[in-house]
Design brief:
about 525 residues, Serine Threonine Protein Phosphatase 5, Tetratricopeptide repeat, DNA Cyclobutane Dipyrimidine Photolyase, subunit A, domain 3, 3 domains, 5-stranded parallel sheet, 20 helices, binds flavin-adenine dinucleotide, binds ligand DLZ, binds iron/sulfur cluster
Length: about 525
């Protein structure tokens, strides 16, 4: 009796470039890996050209790396003839052609791809096995276990749980180091005029070949690229170099200038590790370990609050957002608490606006496929919320424009943290501000066409009237929120005339939004 030889096909997605995954511990001639450049992934939204190039370059480098370790691999390039441009069709074709008897994949991070692969597996006649991606510090459903019975999700509770569970910055009595969980009051300063942040660590990859292939295949993209000098890390070594650079030069200032913004300073002391992390070229564990090790080696150079602020982003916010995603999808993608319906202004795609804060944040997003957190939250996100933009449009923009945008971390930040479209699952109040916050945290207002001190009249800053109009329009939904109810006292203390002038000004700006 002849037994059929077992042959396994293992799918590696473009954001699963984790060379430390246990899959790669042993070489097995009966296992073949497959990676594919597919239009189902490039075209589900219009992406920044740097994002598509970055993913393909990182995927190709990873493919080379596992082949160098003698693993067998099939790599379908964008313009290969036998590429059906969908994960399912390509896998079915390969399974039939090469007579694979098993199909294996790692849990994808996106709900859409999860459903796609589950549907594929339900049709396959071969056996199937799903593996953990071995990247995150939490499982997909850990948040549900921590907050049972619809208990209010709180990032701070989750963060403390993570610190204790992983014994990160915890003393011998299981208490937080230096007696406090959070040192934010020492952080978040404006950049002084005299302070020039360090120039960012940039790479110089020649990826013009990939750019040409993308152009040839007619994929529509946004943004600009210098593909001969591609600045983002596209392999593990470059990712580790960026991590070392961050830890040595940026961490000592990270918390202090975390929320600072300035014209022509596009990354300040931010790590820009999000692309490397989200493609899994590096792990969150090695990022925090590296930062902590550096702190203990150089306590005179790195103050504790800088380190704690950074660790919170990685083991707190990043893992928390993933937990919220898996707890709340697919409904999350339909939430629109304020029932906002407006279109994004055209200038979100060009940066051609007279509002200096928005111009700077958008132009650098087009140029680098990157903006740092507070630009995403308090400039582009803040304006979109005040202007009543449909969260579907806001999601499309964020998902497309940023090199690090993958839905699990994009949508929870955009719909949740930034647009409050989830009605308060992620945040406890909408992140909105008038010009006074922007002027406090940046120097954008100094060179702006608009006057940050004025609510109405010529050159009044649009943020100011839109801010009050937002409160006025959503009183039914916000008045009982204890974190914002005092704003209604301020609003009501204004005279009827003042309030009606402000609303008139806001309405005028909304009607002429493309001219702002
Ligand atoms: P740093 O400031 O150096 O922070 C270090 C790391 O902490 C980041 O690389 C990231 O992995 C993690 N982190 C920090 N804040 C968050 C957060 N709120 N949620 C999850 N992780 C966090 N991040 C993405 O990775 N992809 C996205 O598509 C994305 N979209 C966003 C959309 C909006 C509207 C907002 C407000 C935030 C978004 N973020 C997103 C979170 C955050 O802005 C980015 O992670 C960060 O700007 C990436 O730059 P950095 O690596 O220099 O971060
Ligand atoms: C973002 C992206 C892009 C642009 N292209 C591909 C691709 O061609 N092939 C691929 O496997 N992955 C790509 N990705 C990343 C995927 O969108 C990501 O792996 C899924 O969304 C799962 O999270
Ligand atoms: Fe932005 Fe208003 Fe300041 Fe101009 S004045 S930079 S629009 S906040």
């Amino acid at each position: 009796m002849s037994t059929q030889k077992q042959k396994t096909l293992r799918l590696i997605l473009g954001d699963q470039l984790n060379i430390q995954h246990s899959w790669f511990n042993t070489v097995d001639d009966d296992v073949t890996y497959v990676m594919m450049e597919v239009k189902s992934e490039t075209d589900y939204v219009k992406h920044h050209i740097q994002k598509v190039i970055g993913f393909f370059a990182a995927m190709r480098n990873f493919a080379q790396e596992i082949q160098n370790k003698n693993h067998q691999l099939i790599y379908l390039k964008l313009n290969d003839e036998n590429n059906f441009h969908r994960f399912d069709e390509n896998c079915i074709e390969l399974i039939n052609k090469h007579k694979f008897t098993k199909f294996e994949y790692q849990e994808p991070d996106e709900y859409r791809v999860d459903i796609h692969l589950k549907t594929l597996c339900s049709k396959l006649k071969v056996s199937v096995k799903v593996f953990d991606s071995e990247h995150f510090l939490t499982s997909r459903h850990e948040l549900r276990e921590l907050f049972p019975n619809n208990k209010k999700l709180l990032m701070e509770t989750f963060y403390r749980y993570m610190r204790k569970k992983h014994q990160i910055l915890i003393d011998a009595d299981n208490k937080p180091l230096f007696g406090k969980w959070n040192f934010d009051q020492d952080n978040r300063k404006k950049l002084p005029k005299s302070h020039k942040p360090i120039s960012p660590c940039l790479f110089s990859n020649d990826l013009s070949q990939i750019e040409n292939e993308i152009i040839k295949s007619n994929i529509h993209t946004i943004g600009v690229v210098n593909s001969k000098n591609f600045i983002w890390p596209v392999n593990r070594l470059q990712s580790l170099t960026l991590l070392d650079f961050f830890v040595e030069h940026c961490l000592p200032f990270f918390g202090t200038f975390q929320d600072a913004m300035a014209p022509n300073e596009w990354s300040i002391y931010h790590s820009r590790l999000s692309f490397s992390l989200n493609t899994k070229l590096i792990t969150p564990r090695e990022v925090v370990e590296s930062a902590i090790e550096s702190y203990f080696k150089n306590p005179q150079k790195i103050e504790y609050h800088q380190l704690e602020g950074f660790v919170r982003q990685i083991i707190g916010w990043r893992e928390y957002m993933r937990g919220v995603y898996w707890l709340k999808m697919p409904e999350y993608a339909t939430l629109n608490f304020f029932e906002h319906k407006n279109d994004l202004p055209d200038w979100y795609w060009t940066g051609k606006t007279k509002m200096n804060c928005l111009k700077n944040s958008i132009v650098q997003s087009i140029e680098f496929a990157y903006a740092h957190h507070i630009q995403r939250l308090m400039i582009t996100g803040n304006f979109a919320l005040l202007a009543g933009i449909n969260p579907v449009k806001v999601d499309e923009w964020y998902l497309g424009i940023y090199i690090d945008a993958i839905e699990w971390v994009e949508i929870t930040n955009t719909r949740g943290m930034s647009q409050f479209a989830d009605g308060g699952i992620v945040g406890t109040k909408p992140y909105i501000s008038s010009a006074s916050y922007i002027n406090k945290m940046s120097s954008y207002c100094n060179d702006c066409h608009y006057d940050h001190t004025k609510k109405t009249g010529q050159k009044a800053c649009p943020f100011n009237s839109l801010y009050w109009k937002f409160y006025e329009s959503h009183e039914d939904k916000l008045y009982n929120n204890p974190r914002v109810s005092m704003m209604y006292n301020v609003w009501r203390k204004m005279s009827d005339d003042a309030r009606s002038e402000i609303i008139k000004q806001a309405d005028y700006y909304l009607e002429h939004i493309n001219d702002l």
